[in-house]
Design a protein that fits this description.
The protein is an all-alpha fold. The protein contains three helices and no strands. Helix content is about 85%, strand content about 0%. This is YggT family protein.
């Protein structure tokens, strides 16, 4: 059973790294949108990473009032939920299988 536990733990750790990468890219992309409104290759790279999460949210929640976009905040809330629920559940399952 320890092999399955190690596999589940490895999947949880990789999933946590992916979630942290998305969280980091959303935060930095939001900050750069205020500081550097003109196109930049670094901003473009971060936007392309963060838009993987933000495009589905923007389909259902449009830009509401005075150009405010709440999709980064909602995206971060969803990612934190997945980190706290899914990743921690997988790590706890791996711990109990040992």
């Amino acid at each position: 059973m320890f092999v399955i536990a190690n596999l589940i733990q490895a999947i949880a750790v990789i999933l946590r790294i992916v979630i942290y990468t998305f969280e980091f890219s959303i935060i930095i992309s939001s900050i750069l949108s205020f500081l550097m409104p003109y196109p930049n290759k670094y901003k473009y790279a971060l936007d392309s990473i963060s838009n993987i999460i933000l495009y589905p949210i923007r389909k259902y929640i449009p830009v509401v009032f005075a150009g405010l976009d709440f999709s980064p905040m909602i995206g971060l809330i969803v990612l934190v939920f997945f980190d706290n629920f899914l990743v921690n559940s997988l790590l706890e399952l791996a711990y109990r299988l040992r």
